[in-house]
Amino acid sequence: MGRVLPIVVAIALLVYALIDCLQTDSTRFRSLNRVAWAAIIVLIPLIGPILWLAVGKVRHRPQRPAAPPPRRPLAPDDDPEFLRHLRDVDDKHEQMLNQWEADLRRRETEIQRKKDAEARAAEEAQRRKEAEARQREDEARQHTDDEDDSR
What we know:
Helix content is 74%, strand content 0%. It is built from four helices and no strands. The protein has helices at 4-23, 34-43, 47-56, 80-150. Helix 1 (4-23) packs antiparallel against helix 2. It has two domains: 4-56, no CATH class; 97-150. By secondary structure, the chain is mostly helical. InterPro entries: CLS_N (IPR027379). This is PLDc_N domain-containing protein. The chain crosses the membrane at residues 35-55. Pfam families: PLDc_N (PF13396).
């Protein structure tokens, strides 16, 4: 196992470096072309792949942006536009609710007026009936009194 491990590492490094060389864009090669680097990697074991990885291609380091991009609010309740929209919707709902309540009060008042008018009309009808009944009783008494007087 001790003798096989360096050979396996050298072959793995050779395969990795060769694949990386073949897939690298030609504008990123430093001094030699693709064929020359592939020959160096294959013909000089262990040193060729290390050379390729160390100096063979230009490495692009990610550059930090000059200024951080503007941050968007993370949550809707941090977004002023969203909060403004909610206030507008709340105002609309409040107006609608006030209108409904006023309409309901108006309807209740109308219904109460109708009930009061019906109650007054019923009381008036009851009074008329009672008055007519009293009048009939009085007429009946008077009629009976007149009959008693005539005898």
